Fold this sequence. Notes:
With 230 residues, the chain is mainly alpha-helical.
Amino acid sequence: MITLATAARILRQLRHDRRTVGLLIVVPAALLALLYFMYDGAPAFDRVALVMLGVFPFVIMFLVTSIAMLRERTSGTLERLLTTPLRKLDLLFGYGLAFGLAGAVQALVAVAAAHWLFGLETPAGSVLVAVVDAVLGMALGLLCSAFARTEFQAVQFIPVVVAPQLFLCGLFVPRDEMAGWLQAVSDVLPLTYAVKALAAATVWRDLAVVAGAAVLALILAAATLRRRTG
């Protein structure tokens, strides 16, 4: 019940933050539209857009949750919450549930736009993959927020945590054409398996890897969560 109450509180906060709602729901579909006109009907659009259905939720949720948690800590809200029966895992899994629901709405809008507006052939599990990617981005954002003291520092984790996964997931260069050591690094990055799941190769196994990485990140976030920024 505490986890559900936490999720409800976060969803109420999101509902009153129109800019964040726009970022979560409108921006991915708008960026897909930009890609569509950039490629102007070229076959490469299908491959890139399909990958982006997994990348956009991951990046956006990482950014939103890392800053949201940092604000709760620096404003003293987190310290007050942790003086109640609320446990750290209750808080973090409440975040996971709330942003998972937000990610589901985001994924539905993005996949619907890709399929109905831009003619992209989306695999049956595209929405589920996008939701799991959103939860992964959220979990890593919560973990990284523990090591930031300001919102600017939180944003600086994007090139450290997000960019390598984006470069090595197979979007820019097929993984089998990378150097052996880069393939080895790619094999331990969860976004790689999200992209593979979108390709519908081994969707359930790859989804299990991404979901496991998200749960592990949440547990690590609970272990490193501090009440306030020092």
